[in-house]
Specification:
By secondary structure, the chain is mainly β. It has one domain: Sandwich (lipopolysaccharide transport protein A fold), CATH 2.60.450.10. Helices cover 0% and strands 47% of the residues. The chain has no helices and 13 strands. It is globular and about 50 Å long.
């Protein structure tokens, strides 16, 4: 039986649905994916507001544990949020612990609001054939960008607005259906950290392909 959960959650990463082939053992040069600028901005006191609306999680099985404030989903997991989409085999969500009555979190000023549906999520861990997709608004004079990321595991940290992708990570940025920049891991241990600001940190061997502007 499929389980569908409506939550106001998840981090940016935040995406439109896209069909992608599984990540090869060793990615070959050339367009393969597209990523989530899904990540978040480097920690900052304020963030741009995200589109509002519910997040829908569909899976074959789901478990909710109030004692640990966690939710786990297994089997053909798909997450559709207002500004991103994730597909994976397994997903674990860790909710923020509620403060005691009459108190407020010490870092409340640094916490993202609920505008984008992530306000009640502390961390999220996606495993198995992870694909993250996100469309980013266009910069002045440029078309919108689509990011697509692949890997075996992705860890979202809401307080940092970041996602760390491991297990042969691949990242592809495209505009109007044409690749503009691609990052491929050359080792399984390579780690890619993405931020909502589009900043990216690569730890380990990788290749970066800059496609440049396509000629008409």
């Amino acid at each position: 039986m499929k389980h569908t959960l409506f939550l106001s959650l998840l981090c940016t990463a935040a995406i439109a649905q896209e069909t992608v082939t599984p990540v090869p053992a060793k990615p070959a040069p050339g367009p393969k994916l597209a990523v989530p600028a899904v990540a978040g901005e480097n920690p900052a006191p304020k963030r741009a507001k995200k589109p509002g609306g519910p997040t829908i999680i569909t899976s074959s099985d789901a478990t909710f544990k109030n004692s640990t404030q966690t939710a786990e989903f297994k089997g053909e997991v798909n997450v559709k949020a207002p500004d991103f989409e994730i597909s994976c085999d397994r997903l674990k969500i860790i909710l923020k612990k509620k403060p005691a009555p009459g108190t407020a979190p010490a870092d409340a000023a640094a916490q993202p609001d609920d505008e984008g549906g992530m306000g009640n999520i502390e961390d999220a861990i996606a495993e198995g054939n992870v694909i993250i997709t996100q469309d980013k608004p266009a910069k002045p004079g440029e078309p919108p960008s689509r990011y697509l990321a692949k890997g075996k595991r992705a860890v979202f940290t809401n307080s940092k607005g970041s996602v760390v992708i491991t297990g042969w990570p691949q990242i592809l940025e495209s505009q109007e259906g044409k690749p503009t920049k691609q990052t491929n891991a050359l080792e399984e241990s390579t780690r890619v950290t993405l931020f909502q600001s589009n900043d990216m940190i690569i730890e380990g061997r990788s290749e970066v392909i800059l496609h440049g502007k396509q000629q008409q």
